[in-house]
Every structure is written in structure tokens, then in C-alpha cells.
UniProtKB/TrEMBL annotation:
This is uroporphyrinogen-III C-methyltransferase. Gene3D superfamilies: Cobalt-precorrin-4 Transmethylase, Domain 1, Methyltransferase, Cobalt-precorrin-4 Transmethylase, Domain 2. Keywords: Cobalamin biosynthesis, Methyltransferase, Porphyrin biosynthesis, S-adenosyl-L-methionine, Transferase. SUPFAM superfamilies: Tetrapyrrole methylase. One of its GO terms (biological process) is cobalamin biosynthetic process.
Length: 282
């Protein structure tokens, strides 16, 4: 049982049973965006298998006795195959460990969480899926951009900006994307931004449509570049935004001018466990 918000109620969270895997979304970076189930999984896990997007501040919250296993895929560097990751999860569970598979954002949003569930099911390993806040919603919120807005954006569309080879996926219909009445949220798209912007304009999206590039959203390193379709590729080339970055195309970006001015953001502090640190975190 863990207390929540000092009220009389208590939450009875489910047991993290030895020999099972919890596939958990860690959110975009701020440890304050972890769910209660994610916090429990971090506290109870015997092994934490994490990907490249998980913020180190979140790993600091893990059970000190847990094995921390980095199986992150990083662009341009040797990375474990998905099959190797699946096999490792199965092997750790078969050792009788409580295995926390921790992924940035939400495991089922461009996170290959579905493939890992299928592999676990195939091996007869019981698992739990704990959703996380995806960067395309939480990251935008920290930048002061609502993903939908009544009268302005009646759809929100998540799109990947690259396929296995790093190129723009060839099954994207830019005529359809350009006609949607809401935000287009591109993941993994810094490398293809130029082509995305050109093809949206060619398909009829006005060149002055606002664009925001939000890097390291919800962390202390968050940056936001505001631009438009006509010049976003040039602006990105000049400013060199860091990865990971989410790119938002749509009128909702204009709301940032009002929302971001008084919005309180910034990640919660961690490392407050020791007496010495408590004075810094007060
Ligand atoms: C492999 S996808 C994983 C998405 C993740 N499962 C999610 O739900 O956010 C990686 C992409 O997510 C986006 N991303 C993840 N975390 C981010 C962050 N903190 N700030 C900006 N973009 C982020 C970037 O577009 C990055 O290239």
C-alpha cells in the first residue's frame, strides 16, 4: 500500500510477482510524470531493462539492489536487435526476477512495446503493461502547446518521420495529412523535416502554418524553436536542436505565446532521499 496526497485513502497497487515482466512507460523525462504503477515498479524491480530515452533521474529512483541493464537503441551506434532484447526479457523472467522493462514515453507509441508483449506471450511469461505519457502529448504540454483546442484543432495525428532505413516512410499520404483539421505531431523527424515541410506545402498546407520543434521536452535541457513550414528546415539547420525532438505542425503552436508566459514547468527534483540532499530539495 502507498499513501497518496496525504488523504485518508490508500492505494492497493498490484504485486509485482517474481518471474513476471512489467512493461512500463517512463514518460518524456520529468520524473514527476511517472505513474504510481511506474514508481512501484521502480521500487520493487530486481532488474531494470531500460532504453536510450529513459532519463537518468528516473533510473536514480530504482531499487538500489536492482540490476540496471542498458539495452537502448541509439541512432548511428551499434544497438541490440529487437530479438536480442526480447530474448533477454524472457531469460531474466525465467531466472525468477521481477523484470521492469522501462521505456521512454508510452511503450505502445512508436516504442515497439507490442512486439515485446508478443514475444513474452509466446514464451508463456506473464506481463503487465503500464502506459506512460507520450512525448507528443506531455512534451508539447511542457512547451505550452495543447495537442487539441476547441475550434482550432479537432484532430491530433501522431506520425513517425522515419522508417527502418531512416527515410520518410513511403506509405504516408501527404494529401490526407495536409487536409486534417488539427495538429500533426512528428516523432523521429529531425532528419526528414525538410522533406516533410516541402511535401505538406506541396499538398496544400499554407507555408505560414506554425511549426514548433521541442527538444528534450520536460527535462532541464528542454528547448523550443518556433517557426513555420516555409522556413522550419532552415531554422533547424541553423539552431541544430538536440535529439530527442518532437515536431508539431499546426495552429495550436500559436497558443504557446499565451500559455508559456505564465506556465510553470521544469522537472521535479530527485536525489532528495538523504538528509544532506533534503535541504537542497525543500
Ligand atoms: C522511438 S520513439 C519513442 C517514443 C516514445 N515511446 C513516446 O511515447 O514518447 C523516439 C522519439 O520520441 C520523441 N521523444 C521522446 N522523448 C522525447 C522528449 N523528451 N522530447 C522530445 N521528443 C521526445 C522523439 O521524436 C524521439 O525521436
Amino acid at each position: 500500500m502507498i499513501p497518496v496526497l496525504g488523504g485518508a485513502g490508500r492505494l492497493a497497487l498490484p504485486d509485482f510477482t517474481p518471474g513476471t515482466v512489467w512493461l512500463v512507460g517512463a514518460g518524456p523525462g520529468d520524473p514527476g510524470l511517472l505513474t504510481l504503477l511506474a514508481a512501484k515498479a521502480l521500487a520493487d524491480a530486481d532488474a531494470v531493462v531500460y532504453d536510450a530515452l529513459v532519463d537518468p533521474a528516473i533510473l536514480d529512483l530504482a531499487n538500489p539492489a536492482a540490476r540496471l541493464i542498458d539495452l537502448g537503441k541509439r541512432a548511428g551506434r551499434p544497438s541490440p536487435t529487437q530479438e536480442a532484447i526480447n530474448d533477454r526479457l524472457v531469460a531474466l523472467a525465467r531466472e525468477g526476477l521481477r523484470v521492469l522493462r522501462l521505456k521512454g514515453g508510452d511503450p505502445f507509441v512508436f516504442g515497439r512495446g507490442g512486439e515485446e508483449c508478443l514475444a513474452l506471450a509466446d514464451a508463456g511469461i506473464a506481463f503487465r503493461v503500464v502506459p506512460g505519457i507520450t512525448a507528443g502529448i506531455g512534451g508539447m504540454a511542457y512547451a505550452g502547446i495543447p495537442v487539441t483546442h476547441r475550434g482550432m484543432a479537432t484532430t491530433a495525428t501522431f506520425v513517425t518521420g522515419h522508417d527502418k532505413s531512416g527515410a520518410l516512410p513511403d506509405n504516408l499520404d501527404f494529401g490526407v495529412l495536409a487536409a486534417l483539421p488539427g495538429a500533426l505531431v512528428f516523432y523521429m523527424a529531425l532528419g526528414t523535416l525538410d522533406e516533410i515541410a516541402r511535401r505538406l506545402v506541396a499538398a496544400g498546407k499554407p507555408p505560414m502554418t506554425p511549426v514548433a520543434i521541442v527538444s528534450s521536452a520536460s527535462t532541464a535541457a528542454q528547448t523550443v524553436i518556433e517557426s513555420n513550414l516555409a522556413r522550419c528546415a532552415e531554422d533547424a539547420a541553423r539552431s541544430q536542436p538536440k535529439r530527442p525532438a518532437i515536431i508539431v505542425v499546426g495552429e495550436v503552436v500559436r497558443l504557446r505565446g499565451w500559455i508559456a508566459s505564465l506556465q510553470q514547468t521544469g522537472p521535479v527534483q530527485t536525489g532528495c532521499g538523504s538528509k544532506a540532499a533534503q535541504s537542497l530539495c525543500a
